[in-house]
């Protein structure tokens, strides 16, 4: 029995291992267990680690809110994990209710002009004196300036190397304020809790979920199945072909009710260009 635990990249590797075992006709069963805090594994309801990540992200947002409130024209900027999907940013925003703007990879945004981020934050600072911005690490990659060589860079898995949107946005916010509000007090408190979120012990919800995934995986193998991923679909635990899960994506649906809740709570713009 081989238990392979990880996210979409790990599961793609698991498919290759499974295929090679099948080619050699070995009596080895293979099962994948979906574990990634980003929650970007497709088909299943959620992956192990996500609930803990949201809980820790909420603590970072709370700290950013306190810091932003403590300074005139204060902005708390929090960068959260999520290269291709903004699930952590979205759920943490809904959980905290302290966020004024949530930026995710699935919803493009822009800085300047009518309906842009700067205009919105300027209004929010004028009304409330502070603001909190949450940005997923994959957001804004299309508008961050980069050289030709940076555009060609890939990591060891062949994925494009992302630039640090948190550092870039921190710099752009300060540049905007200095340009348009010269002489006025302004503070950006930038928080990047990435490794704090990744390194903590799983909370009770994730511990329970992990136990159920483990038991489900063992029962599936003992029943004679192989080449599957275990996970809940609409609350029912299922055995799903590993290749299907490895190829599936789980983006945030910007047309569904959860994103509508975010827009309602934050009152942020839809970032649609206007002429």
Can you put this structure into words, describing what you see?
GO terms for molecular function: 6-phosphofructokinase activity; metal ion binding. It comes from Lactuca saligna (Willowleaf lettuce). It holds the Pfam family PFK. Keywords: Allosteric enzyme, Kinase, Magnesium, Metal-binding, Transferase. This protein is α/β, with parallel strands linked by helices. Helix content is 44%, strand content 16%. The chain is built from ten helices and eight strands. The chain has helices spanning 8-24, 50-69, 87-96, 117-128, 148-152, 165-180, 194-199, 204-222, 242-247, 257-266; strands at residues 2-6, 30-34, 74-80, 101-103, 130-136, 187-191, 228-233, 236-241. The strands form two sheets. The protein has a four-stranded mixed beta sheet, sandwiched between helices. A four-stranded parallel beta sheet has the order 4-5-3-6, sandwiched between helices. α2 crosses α3. The protein is elongated.
What's the structural blueprint in terms of helices and strands?
Layout: E1 2-6, H1 8-24, E2 30-34, H2 50-69, E3 74-80, H3 87-96, E4 101-103, H4 117-128, E5 130-136, H5 148-152, H6 165-180, E6 187-191, H7 194-199, H8 204-222, E7 228-233, E8 236-241, H9 242-247, H10 257-266
Parallel strand pairs: 1-2, 2-7, 3-5, 3-6, 4-5
Antiparallel strand pairs: 7-8
Helix pairs in contact: 2-3
Cofactor: Mg(2+)
Keywords: Allosteric enzyme, Kinase, Magnesium, Metal-binding, Transferase
InterPro entries: ATP_PFK, PFKA, Phosphofructokinase_dom, PKF_sf
């Amino acid at each position: 029995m081989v238990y392979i635990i990880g996210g979409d990249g790990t599961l793609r590797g698991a498919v290759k291992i499974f295929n090679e075992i099948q080619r050699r006709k070995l009596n080895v069963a293979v099962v994948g267990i979906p574990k990634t805090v980003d929650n970007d594994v497709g088909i299943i309801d959620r992956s192990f680690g996500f609930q803990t990540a949201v809980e820790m992200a909420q603590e970072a947002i709370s700290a950013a809110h306190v810091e932003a409130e403590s300074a005139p024209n204060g902005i708390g900027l929090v960068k959260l994990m999520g290269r291709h999907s903004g699930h952590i940013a979205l759920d943490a925003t809904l959980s905290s209710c302290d966020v004024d703007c949530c930026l995710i990879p699935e919803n493009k945004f822009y800085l300047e002009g009518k309906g842009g981020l700067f205009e919105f934050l300027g209004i929010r600072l004028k009304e409330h004196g502070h603001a909190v911005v949450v940005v997923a690490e994959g957001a804004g990659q299309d508008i961050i300036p980069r050289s030709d060589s940076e555009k060609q860079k890939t990591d060891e898995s062949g994925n494009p190397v992302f630039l640090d949107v948190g550092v870039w946005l921190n710099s752009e916010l300060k540049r905007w304020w200095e340009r348009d509000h010269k002489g006025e007090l302004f503070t950006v408190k930038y928080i990047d809790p990435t490794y704090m979120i990744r390194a903590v012990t799983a909370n009770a919800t994730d511990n329970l979920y992990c136990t159920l995934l483990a038991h489900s995986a063992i029962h599936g193998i003992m029943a004679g199945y192989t080449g599957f991923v275990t996970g809940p679909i609409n609350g029912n635990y299922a055995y799903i072909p590993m290749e299907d899960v490895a190829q599936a994506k789980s983006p945030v649906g910007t047309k569904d009710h959860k994103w509508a809740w975010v827009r309602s709570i934050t009152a942020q713009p839809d970032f649609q260009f206007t002429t």
